[in-house]
């Protein structure tokens, strides 16, 4: 019907049976937040704060940070904004956080590991976020990158709560965190699966290296099975499970991810309209059926083909 077409081209993300799947944006600047709001994002699922400080020699002050955070939050009154604390290291070194001379920076002291080693930087960022959140109408949540153990998740939630931020989650993008989802998930208020790094680490294939790019495919059942077990742990513990890697921007894969238990999807805002339209074609039962087909496939290519073939035709 016309109403169905209209609701699929704007408004909140939902499946054909009405099941809500909030469509959030990945942003890295005030400008990209403004663009995301204009494109109908229902909030922000990943604010990559390290992008703001890539050239900085020293840690930005609390006031300087709070000003920028306030400007981003102002774009999403009444909506959720998930802020990732600094994810420094590997492809995004920050002079004040990243160790020099690591031989394998993707396996080095990066993400939350670097913040634990420089805890005042983390405390200052959380203070700036709490200050900006208190002065805004957005529903601000914080999230830690590169969490690999349940202890790290517990550490992050405790330090966020100490800084008066009540909702603290963790990214699941290191295989150990996904394998131990039943222990990691209960230590977080929400989790968000970073399919870019999860795929890189599952295949031991640098996500930026062209010669191994064929392995960077989140359709691979090796990745999907881990996502499935995180989805199960989320459902068992009543903990929301978001997806914030590039996988969420692939419309048909987005349906599979919902079938695997994703409760929200976050992506580059340019992809939201296409994902919204595809979700509107499927019920939750249908998404779960497609997900089962994908996880049973022997390869990424086979999963993509089998799901494409099983996709119900447009009404
Ligand atoms: C990811 O790893 O999937 C992710 C969303 O974070 P980033 O791409 O910034 O590492
Ligand atoms: Mg990542």
TrEMBL record:
According to UniProt, the reaction catalysed is:
L-histidyl-[protein] + phosphoenolpyruvate = N(pros)-phospho-L-histidyl-[protein] + pyruvate
Any one GO molecular function term: phosphoenolpyruvate-protein phosphotransferase activity
Give the EC class as a word. Answer: transferase
Please give the superkingdom of this protein's source. Bacteria
Compartments, as annotated in UniProt: Cytoplasm
Q: Where is the PEP-utilising enzyme C-terminal domain?
A: 12-282
Mapped onto the parent protein, the portion here is: 243 to 557 of 559
* Chain residues that bind Mg(2+): 173, 197
Q: What cofactor does this chain's UniProt record say it requires?
A: Mg(2+)
Q: Which UniProt keywords apply?
A: Cytoplasm, Kinase, Magnesium, Metal-binding, Phosphotransferase system, Pyruvate, Sugar transport, Transferase, Transport
Query: What the protein does?
Result: General (non sugar-specific) component of the phosphoenolpyruvate-dependent sugar phosphotransferase system (sugar PTS). This major carbohydrate active-transport system catalyzes the phosphorylation of incoming sugar substrates concomitantly with their translocation across the cell membrane. Enzyme I transfers the phosphoryl group from phosphoenolpyruvate (PEP) to the phosphoryl carrier protein (HPr).
Which protein is depicted?
Phosphoenolpyruvate-protein phosphotransferase
Catalytic residues, chain numbering = 244
Which organism is this protein's natural source?
A: Microcella putealis
A GO biological-process term: phosphoenolpyruvate-dependent sugar phosphotransferase system
Binding of phosphoenolpyruvate, residues: 48, 84, 196-197, 207
User: Which family is this protein grouped under?
Assistant: Belongs to the PEP-utilizing enzyme family.
* Gene Ontology cellular-component annotations: cytoplasm
Q: What is its main location?
A: cytoplasm
Write the Enzyme Commission number(s) for this entry.
Answer: 2.7.3.9
């Amino acid at each position: 019907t016309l109403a169905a077409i209209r609701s699929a081209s704007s408004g909140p993300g939902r499946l054909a049976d009405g099941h809500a799947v909030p469509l959030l944006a990945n942003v890295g600047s005030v400008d990209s937040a403004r663009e995301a709001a204009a494109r109908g994002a229902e909030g922000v699922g990943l604010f990559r704060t390290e992008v703001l400080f890539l050239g900085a020699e020293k840690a930005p002050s609390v006031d300087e940070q709070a000003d920028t955070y306030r400007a981003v939050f102002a774009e999403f009154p009444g909506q959720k904004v998930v802020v990732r604390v600094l994810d420094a290291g590997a492809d995004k070194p920050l002079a004040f956080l990243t160790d020099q001379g690591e031989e394998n920076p993707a396996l080095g002291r990066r993400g939350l590991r670097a913040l634990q080693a420089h805890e005042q930087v983390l405390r200052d960022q959380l203070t700036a976020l709490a200050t900006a959140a208190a002065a805004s109408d957005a529903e601000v949540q914080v999230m830690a990158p590169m969490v690999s153990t349940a202890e790290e998740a517990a550490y992050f939630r405790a330090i966020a709560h100490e800084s008066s931020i009540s909702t603290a989650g963790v990214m699941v993008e290191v295989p150990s965190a996904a394998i131990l989802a039943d222990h990691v998930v209960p230590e977080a208020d929400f989790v968000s699966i970073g399919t870019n790094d999860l795929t890189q680490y599952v295949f031991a294939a640098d996500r930026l290296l062209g010669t191994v790019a064929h392995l960077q495919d989140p359709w691979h059942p090796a990745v999907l099975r881990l996502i499935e077990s995180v989805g199960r742990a989320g459902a068992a513990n009543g903990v929301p499970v978001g997806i914030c890697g590039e996988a969420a921007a692939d419309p048909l894969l987005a349906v599979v991810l919902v079938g695997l238990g994703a409760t929200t999807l976050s992506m580059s805002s340019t992809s939201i309209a296409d994902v919204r339209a595809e979700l509107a074609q499927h019920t939750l039962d249908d998404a779960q059926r497609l997900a089962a087909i994908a996880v049973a496939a022997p390869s990424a290519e086979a999963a993509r083909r089998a799901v494409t073939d099983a996709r119900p035709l447009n009404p």
